[in-house]
Specification:
Blueprint lengths: L2 H7 L2 H9 L13 E6 L3 H4 L8 H10 L2 H7 L4 E6 L9 H6 L26 E5 L10 H7 L4 E7 L1 H14 L3 E5 L3 E2 L3 H15 L1 E3 L1 H9 L3
Parallel strand pairs: 1-2, 1-4, 2-3, 4-5, 4-6, 5-7
Amino acid sequence: MTEAEQTDLGSPSSVLRQNYEGVFDGRIGFGTKPALLVVDFINAYTTPGSPLYAPAVVTAVTETADLLPLARQKGVPVIYTRVIYNRSGLDGGIFVQKVPILRRMVEGEPLADIVPELPPAPDDVVINKQYASAFFGTALAAMLTSLGVDTLILTGCSTSGCIRATAVDGMQHGFRVIVPRECVGDRHPAPHEANLFDIDSKYGDVVAKAEVIAYLQADL
């Protein structure tokens, strides 16, 4: 064994791969009844100069645009979320104390609006939420269950916050969580990649967008 190989065997990434092999590499795959969830693609993340601006989210918005017309064409439910608070901020609890900028997300604030590149269609559902997970304190789980949905295609931002929290809750509610890699974004690449790694290891499948498109194009 070369010195380079011995060094690699002791590297954190190599140890991680060895420890996870065969333990956290299971796949759940797609089910038969999907829904497309668009989490918090709002102007706050795509407007230069905004405190929450994240160029990677702008890219994720562009990538997600391909999925919406296909989902609607196939009769797949499309559900949006946005973070919105009462002007008092009382419904934000500890979250708005921890992240005060969220207090700006009120009705009438342009930064709280869904990005114009991904406008909801008349039959799409828009859910207002106050916390990270799209499931927490909302009717999302009941709606998906009533529709017979078994597969949740999860897009949006941010990967390390609302996407991860929604992926965890989605799995805990019994849904197959599928995350198209190109369709989620974060403020920084390190937490983005770390959380995609964790989601793919324990809570769902992180796949290429092309795989989701092929699934949606097939007979559902």
